[in-house]
Amino acid sequence: MTRTVIFILVASLIFSIYGLANYYIFIRGLHALRLTGGVRISYIVVFTFLAVSFIAAMFLERADIIALGKPLSWIGSFWLAAFVYFLLILAAIDLTRLANHFIHFFPSFMTSYRAHAANITAISVISLVAAVVIYGFINAHIIRVRTFDINVPKQAGGRKNVNIVMASDIHLSSIINNGRIRAIVDRINSLSPDIVLLPGDILDGDLNPVVRQNLGEGLRQIKAPLGVYAVTGNHEYIGGVEKACKYIGDHGVKLLRDSTAFIDGSFYVVGREDRSARKRTPLSELMSGVDKKYPVILMDHQPFHLEEGEANGVDLQLSGHTHYGQMWPFNYITKMVYELAYGYLVKGTTHIYVSSGVGTWGPPVRIVANPEIAQFRLTFAE
Fold this sequence. Notes:
This protein has 13 helices and 12 strands. The relative contact order is 0.13. About 45% of the residues lie in helices and about 20% in strands. The chain folds into 2 domains: about 5-140, no CATH class; about 145-380, Metallo-dependent phosphatases (Purple Acid Phosphatase, chain A, domain 2). It is an alpha/beta fold. It has helices spanning about 5-35, 35-60, 65-105, 110, 115-140, 180-190, 210, 215-220, 235-240, 240-250, 285, 305-310, 330-335; strands spanning about 145-155, 160-165, 195-200, 230, 255, 260-265, 265-270, 295-300, 315-320, 345, 350-355, 370-380. It is elongated, with a radius of gyration of 24 Å. Strand 6 and strand 7 form a beta hairpin.
């Protein structure tokens, strides 16, 4: 079965589930609000518009119809966040109602005045969802910096230390636009990095809104004397990896695609191609040309098989991809999928960090995972 067929099947399944879930929210809202006449028709039109806006935006941006795609992208992204919490809350309410059918624990006023109780519940649910989404939107714009002091017991030429700044999962798009990339770059530069590492998903997917807004110019403003290096993430593959890499490279970022760089005669940076590639070089083969008496830093976008870095003499591995779920309760799913879904871990002599990322995918909303930039102050043996 070809990748195209698999993609079509998976996409069809996702859209079907999304459509059914939206229909469930739609019906529950219709019943709870008891709308009639023109208000009912308005509800149907508005709900349908919200439900299809994100999907429509993806097609419009791919067709380079930015004038329509950009506003729909914003509307659809916010609806995705609201959709998640409407779905969770309504499912919880219906499960509670089902339990009450057998146990009868609802107070009498809820059963005696069903219409009134339904109206109060509907208003409460809408208010709660709105509050959560607004909080998540504000939180997504407050960049935190996590700093780690790590000693690597290797000599690094004549260098005694290096200040590394990492920013993963920027997701440049209609949502992560010029104002946002300026804020990210300003925060990176404020840390006075020697070198900046971008472990994948610099772009969100389609390149058209990025080119149209000249977002790459923001990357060019990063100031690091030893350079800015990156690897591909799965989202670079969505809109065409070669076009994405050319665009990133044209804006001052050196891409390591299953390749290595010996920096300032002091340490190695090893960059793996994302797992989305049809074929990528095994890490053992990639490391065969690396002199491991020097410190070795590995960038691998998706944090699978962390034991490989340890087995191949990597001193520091940097990954992203997970967003630590971005919104509750998806953080629990990432914990089940990855050995390290977020944070810092030491395996043997290998220090590993998985970032929650600095941008957002889909909704510009972060509930459990703060946007962050990570700083690693490495000291070396003399």
